[in-house]
Amino acid sequence: MQPLGRGLVPMSQRTSEGVARILRTEIFSGQLKPGEPLPERLIAEQLGVSRTPVREALFTLQSEGLVELTPNRGASVRTVTAHDIVQIYSLRGVLESYAAREAARTRTRQDLDALEDAHAKLERITASGGTAPEQALADLAFHTLISEATGSRLLHTIMGQVLAFTVSYRSNYSYPTARTAAAIAEHRAILDALRDGDADGAERLMREHIASSSRFALEQFHDPEHVPGLGTTD
């Protein structure tokens, strides 16, 4: 396992949340690969923390679908399957279309400004040839802000878990130019519907966006050149 983070974790962040944040970032960035072991002792040594917050962080990441805990074998980065992708995008289609509908009714000026900033950041990253992890995290920010705009803590929490799983997979491949342009246009249409308070339109556009993203994700899954290290079993 490659060294984690940038060295010792500050005392104020030596909690399970702090450790989970570091591990999550390393998974999203591709530094920690699918199937890679996550030994508690080594992680604790590298981060300069005790094993207790590491153990708690691994349980947190297991609940997010990012880590697999196996009795007598310990933790490892979860390997994504085609069945996982179908399930996760089906869930996203339901949850995010509902979130878009609700957000169109409840969004504030601050929410819209934050979404504009997130959209602009994704455009900048795309224009500058950003990496797959950078694209994935920028996309995550946009979708997360929509869940926040609903004002529902429960929905935001559930969507956070679902989106985290998506990003861990999405970080392994870059969108080609045509798909990137389409995704950005889809985001813009969703944002315009939210701005107009068009609940029906926002719901429909989000469902269509997730469906197109799902099709592309499955295409990449079956292309090992684009998604190194991922299995192809159902």
Task: Please characterize this protein's 3D structure.
With 234 residues, the protein is mainly alpha-helical. It folds into 2 domains: 11-77, Arc Repressor Mutant, subunit A (Orthogonal Bundle); 82-221, Up-down Bundle (Four Helix Bundle (Hemerythrin (Met), subunit A)). It is built from 9 helices and 2 strands, in the order αααββαααααα. The protein has helices at residues 16-29, 40-47, 51-63, 82-106, 109-127, 132-149, 153-170, 177-196, 199-221; strands at residues 67-70, 74-77. Strands 1-2 form a two-stranded antiparallel sheet. α4 packs across α6 (132-149) and α5 (109-127) runs antiparallel to α6 (132-149). The longest helix has 25 residues, at 82-106. It starts with 15 loop residues before the first helix and ends in a 13-residue tail after the last helix. Mean pLDDT is 86; it is low at 224-234.
Shape: globular
CATH architecture of the largest domain: Up-down Bundle
Percent of residues in β-strands: under 5%
Distance between the termini: 27 Å
Name the helicity range: 55-70%
Report the uncertain regions.
224-234
String of helices and strands:
HHHEEHHHHHH
**The number of domains:** 2
CATH-assigned fold name of the largest domain: Four Helix Bundle (Hemerythrin (Met), subunit A)
Roughly how many Å is the radius of gyration?
Answer: 18 Å
GO molecular function: DNA binding; DNA-binding transcription factor activity
Keywords: DNA-binding, Transcription, Transcription regulation
Protein name: Transcriptional regulator, GntR family
Domain HTH gntR-type: 13-80
